[in-house]
Amino acid sequence: MKHIFYGILFLITASVQAQVSFEAKISRKSLGVNERLRVDFTMNQNGDNFSPPNFNGFTVVGGPNQSVSRQWVNGKSSFNKTFTYFVQPNRTGSITIQQAEITIEGEVYKTTPITVNVTGAVKKPDSPESKARSLADENLHLVAQISNANPYVNEGILVTYKLFVSSRISVNGTQPVDNPKFADFWSQMIPQTNYVIRDEQYNGEPYKSVVLQQAVLYPQKSGKLVIEPLTLSVNVDVPTNRRDFFGNRMYRTVEKRVSAGGRSINVKELPQENKPENFTGAVGSFNFDVSTSKTSLKALESLQLEVKVSGNGNLKLFNLPGFATPPTLEVYEPEHEENVRTNASGMRGNIKDRYTIVPQAKGKFTIDPLSFSYFNPTTEQYETVSSKEFVINVTKGPEISASTDSASVAKQKVTSLGNDFRYIKLTTQLVRPFEDPFFKSAIFWGLLITPLLFLPLFMLVKKKRDARLGDVKTMRIRKADKLARKYLGEAKRNLGSQKNFYDALERALHNYLKAKLSIQTSDMSKERIQRLLKEKGADDQLVIEFISLLESCEFARYTPTSNVAMQQDYDKAVRVISSLDKQL
């Protein structure tokens, strides 16, 4: 009987554990570096918050594609849901696909990691796809153009990544695979808000060109420096020999990787001849200005002295000159202010140091002229600019003692005002808080009865809490609403990271729909969402905007987008959700 009991217990446990299945499957365990792999994540119960692995060592070239199936056999129902990805390896060797996660009925389930063996490129037959790839190779080129291949240290240069496309093919999307790190450079990316297509020549043939990325670089050391290549994954539409029913040529879409290749520049050291002693590394074309808020004031009043450099150059990469003052002028640490914008011509604007000066005594005090030196790469010479001398006239205040140097301030006599300081009492007198007996007093009975008066209130609160927890549907809606706000905040924190931002935004939108419409992720077709929102009384314009946000999340998996577009999508999501809340 003992063995039978344990056997039954084991079978019950196994059957309970077997109720939920979440596993990863791959189309093959070995492939070439130029081949693709299909990865399926399958579950037998519907779940939420699916989180795929990061696919390190692979590039996602397709997916995620979602499929759901339900079957009824002999009165029993079965459910199957699959997320499918198509990936291509980035290198050879053994690559592990890490765990995926999903939440099913409040529990987190993970898949088992899978290891794939990637060999060198395999030879493929001369298929229509290989012909299409060959045509894409011949008519698509990514080029890195450098404004100056022989700059000085800290002289700004512009790197432009330009895509050339022949009229024989067309491009319907790009995605960065490997971005340059710009080691040994101070770098600033220039946002591309508008992609302008131009007609240009490439190797003597007419092409269409578009600027994809631009970066301003300031080399930080001399010698030969390498600018790492930019690699992109491009979806190319290539014409085929087939035609449709109306006689129009049909196209085949292939994925093509293009690289700008590494570029080398020769950075020159700044000349040592005639180098000023006060040179701090400023390179460019600058103006220098020193000004004061006032030159006449009383002692212990304050004035502002501002040191300002403006122009075009490495404004963020050097220090402004300091100055010396007589000890009678008390100088505080400066407030540093930068008003610098970076565009294709480099850094432009101004930087300031604003000093607060407080004179301590009466007299006239001199602030010597300040000088600022910089290297002008256009003239290839050092240039020095000096300010004028400032005389600060302090009209009222303590006199400077004649027996000491001009930096010493005469000591003032301290006069007693009568009752400034008092003796501290050294004896204490203890006072009893209760002169009457505490037991059976009014305070005693009050403290005893008060908890009993609050007991019905506690029971009422507990009853309402139990009722709220027992309402499973309401709790689900509240949990989904909480998750929607959580993922909306996560989207805001990931502004600038396209994949993480749109993943969080999509989860926020899905959980919002669960809270407001009481539907699951598998039932979220666009047509049903539109119908349910309109039935709830939502405006047609808000429904259209909500659907466009879902489409933006889908398109972001395949096409690059700018930080400005991400900010606009986030602001739009906040506005749309807030408006729908009021209407629903």
Automatic annotation (TrEMBL):
Keyword NADP attributed: no
Endpoints of the signal sequence: 1-18
Keyword RNA-binding included in the entry's annotation: no
Spans traversing the lipid bilayer: 442-461
InterPro entries cross-referenced by the UniProt entry: BatD
Keywords: Membrane, Signal, Transmembrane, Transmembrane helix
Pfam families: BatD
UniProt-recorded name of the protein: BatD family protein
